[in-house]
User: Fold this.
Amino acid sequence: MKLTRHAVTVLLFTLLWGAAHGAVTDDAPDLSELLRYERWGALRARPRLQLLDMGWDSNVFISQEETGDYRATVAPGLEGLILFGDRAFLRFDSEARYTAYSEYSELNYLDLRNAARVTFPIGRWAVYSGGGFDRVRKTPVDLDDVRPVYVNARAELGTKFTVSERSSLELGLAYRDLKHEDDDFNVEDGDLGARLDRVELENRTIYRHAVGGQAELSFEVAGAKIEFDTPNVVGLPGFGRDSRAMRLLPGISLGEEGPWTGRVELGYAELNYDSGTLPGYSGSVGRAELRYRPFQGSTWTLKGLREVDFSASQDNNYHVLQSARLNTLYFVSPVVGLELELARGELELPASSRVDDLLEYWGGLRFLTMQDAFGRRVEYRVKIGRRERDSSDPQRDRSGSAVTIDAVFGY
Assistant:
């Protein structure tokens, strides 16, 4: 049976809008967390203002022939918490980003990111409901283009049961409506929306268990039903893309004490098309973000990713993206820090035998002029770097350089 918006009416009625670039959790706030917020009446707030990417980009059109321009992004945001009595609470995170170009003003765009969740603790149970709405300019990883409009409307319901002092079990249902729009998507057999617009309904079960006081083990089992607005592959009638996906994802989170912090998840996933006319995927997936602080003033951050997603460019089948990013930051004084970053990745499109090698490298300075125990800070960053794509299809090769200044005020 087809998924429709009517099938998720209950979810949409409970949807709470915000703008999220990070997770909104159902963990009850404790006193130490409450002290990190400013009081605005009933609202506890953590406001921020970021000025990003102020400088020169040598390839603003993401094309083989580089065209440069000056640009800048202003990004106000607000993370908030509202308590309802001594039990229920609402978290949200909202951000808007406006990017402007000096010469090519037709590239100017506004991004909106929103997420929120309300939680009702009832004894050892907690029931949550939430969602979000993002409308951003986001280029699909396998498509070289200016920046198409990507819309992600989502909602979720779930419950969490505290099994013991160390263990919990979470059951959740999530709904996502994904839309894409690009006026200059130059493909004869269909626009970007016909290739990527879809609805996803996912159920998940997550078991968590704390060990040793400084780490938490988790195990996630999830399944999803995916239905495209245009069910058949564009240009290939009879090749249906409606599909089912599943993942088994063990993970470990490390506490804030000690030199190592962060989270690692590595597991197994499958993507199977209902029609059986397209080859599916079965293999490893995962994500990681680890921070190592060998001594005060020095931080090494490693981020890793292996994911499977639908392709915009090759018969609408899937692609596999894997990447690793290493950042090192060393403060030579309480104010001035040296920063280096290197990222390597590989994009594989099995349907076309296309493989892209991805490379980024950056270097720069950080100036931390103010920071307190509650997370408020004033920080500036100057960086210079380069990104490169070396594809097995020479028409897909891309490169570009940038020199930018960032500034962060608030939380």
Q: What stands out?
A: The longest strand covers residues 354-371. Residues 248 and 395 are 37 Å apart (CA to CA). The chain has a mean pLDDT of 90.
